[in-house]
Sequence to fold (444 residues):
Amino acid sequence: MMIEYENYVAATSVAEATKTLAEGNATVVAGGTDLMVQTAASGRGANTTLLNIRRISDLRGVALDGGRVTIGALTTITDLLTDGVVADAASILADTANRFASNQIRNMATVGGNICNASPAGDMIIPLLVLDADVELSAWRDGAVTTRAVALNEFFTGPGKCVKTEDELLTSISFNRPAEGFVGQFGKTGPRPALEISMVSVGVGGIVDNGGLTNARVVYGAVAPTPIRAAKTEAALEGLSLNEASIQSVLDVADSEVNPISDVRASDWYRRHLVRVMTQEVLQNVANG
Amino acid sequence: MSQMVNIIVTVNGEKRHVSVTPGLSVLNMLRDNLDLTGAKLVCGEGECGACTVIVDGVSVNSCLMYAVELDGREVTTVEGLQSSEKLDPVQQAFVDKGAIQCGYCTPGMVMQTTHLLSKNGKPNDEEIRRGLEGNVCRCTGYTKIIEAVNQAAEG
Fold:
């Protein structure tokens, strides 16, 4: 099914884009790699106006300012692979980008788009949750652009659903630069290394201390209706000295906390198996330094 | 009725004025509006790479990009590689190594190889496999394609 839009707006500023959104019935396109497939398959995004935000040059790039890293929503996945700030301050983002789709898709797809698509399996969401990221939502209200910050952990409400209202545009993602000693690890499993929607993805982060992690973060993708932070698993991991037995105890908590479904990509029992295997692998990596 | 959007896009070095609807893909514009049928529609989901073209120096899946997004930009398709009677070195390498069987994936493979070699002039076999991860071939088993990329890199 080919969807046709009645109008096209190529915004060059956040003001212009949010004004267009305020008028209603607009579908935002950034990289387009999810939107094109979904409109063809299900008519998602079948609004009257196609709003292209790709021309808003302010929204692309990564900056470090006062200990805070800000990623413009239009930063591509390829950009993350080569960005100096990312390599220096948050290499888990580059590690994840390296596992993302294919070269062609990484060249087009944007970080903001991957978040707004709100897939339970969205790869870039996992490391951003590990990093305690916030998203900035902009809207045209009372004659001006207004913004609000939402914790990424509170952004998703279900598969394809989030708290962003129809007149809001996700304009940037930011997080505090991780402290000295931070390690972050990302893992995903699919039938082949490239172009796979994760059957399960995992992100772990924290400050290495005495053979364990403090300020521990454990995040899973594709095991619940949204990407999740596993709070009980984080609590079990906090300050725990990592060895074979203690890692097993963390895996039991993780297993109790995930709630996967069976679908075309994997059955629920296999996803539970992957949660254990993949969590064990990343924790062993942390333990081995 | 859809609004028609007039765009100016440089296709294979030539400035073209094209009138497109907002929902038209780059692939359909190339094939239907400009009669450039090298890029192929296979999966339509960015999984196979047969529609790969180069936009402003980077490879993209033309089935996943809106034609309106090309306004003011430069596109190179497989038709644009050959500047004289002689094939481009990447095209010639695919012929020499027998890296073509049914040929349907070949324009995408050639364009992605061109992109890969523009970023990394001497890729090793692993880098070639990674570079072509977004392109599927069901005939060759890939070995001859990797040999072709190696030849193109040496040439």
Remarks:
- Chain A has a mean pLDDT of 95.
- Chain A touches chain B at residues 2-8, 10, 29, 31-33, 36-37, 39-40, 50, 52, 54, 78, 101-105, 107-108, 193-195 (CB under 8 Å).
- Residues 92 and 184 of chain A are 5 Å apart (CA to CA).
